[in-house]
Design brief:
This protein is mainly α. 36% of the residues lie in helices and 1% in strands. It contains 15 helices and two strands. Helix 13 packs across helix 14.
Length: 353
Amino acid sequence: MRIRQLHIILLVLCFSCENESVEHYAATPSPLDIPKIFEDNILAPVIPIGNPQTIEGIALGKKLFFDPILSSNNTQACADCHTPENAFTDSDRFSDGVDGMFGNRNSMPLFNLAWNYDEKFFWDGNTFSLEHQAFVPVSDPIEMNSNWTEVEQKLQQHSEYPVLFEQAFGVSKIDSTFITNAIAQFERTLISSNSKFDKYLLGEVTLSPEELNGFNIFMDEAKGDCFHCHGSDKNPLWTDNIFHNNGLDETFTDLGLGAVTGDPADNGKFKSPSLRNLEFTAPYMHDGRFATLDEVINHYSEGLKNSSTIDPLMKKVTQGGVGLSELEKADLKAFLLSLSDHEFIDNPKFKIE
């Protein structure tokens, strides 16, 4: 059993002494609908034993995700920094928190999270599970700037939430464990798997010559050399979910993973984001420094910067990058845009009407 799963189970058991009915209550199971392209290519999703997917839990998590009640002044919801039309990220470079506070990073998109096998979330991997990822922003002073005692009290005194928590978890006392369990259940349903390239792999559509050439550039170690960090036609996540220094800076004001591990060898390393839905997720990189996809491609083509922790996969850093022609850049962009899933951002299951 995974250590992280054990932590989650222990948390639930600790709170069950105050909510004795939780041991005897079972909400309606709602297993994830696994896309065929995932079944054929990757392992099963990570679902903690202590937080199974249920109809009631997912519905509660969705309501909480879009409700500003979690913030200190009732103005900030999870969905304000993770909007459906932007593939659950933010079109602003730095997301505003309550009272006009903001940090120095762009919010990460949220989809296919149940296949993040190392269960390290955020750009710097500072959380150890999807449940913990839902826990952190509430008390973060530059995000929701609240505290969990206050949030629990607000929900307990609400006209609807006590009934919804009882339906989802069989409990009468609302606490942070059940709140974050519900949000994590909803977030695990955010599955993106119906891009043009997905349909091409399933034999349903054909790609343009430009898109096909762009895919070949992506996969060619002598040209784009993108697949090591961002997957391939055999990895529908389009990320390795690993932390890399991809040549953005020579020195670091944001240490990334290094600030979490304390290891200088990790300075400047950030999680590889999925290349799905790039059409909707600008700006790009951990700090949103690139406003367009063209700027991202230019970075890898001729903008790489060397540093002490540069990833070995940045093989041509001494040359500034892989040196693509303008035509190759255009074709690579065409391929990358074929990974965009319009059905995902328009799915009514992921929105509040």
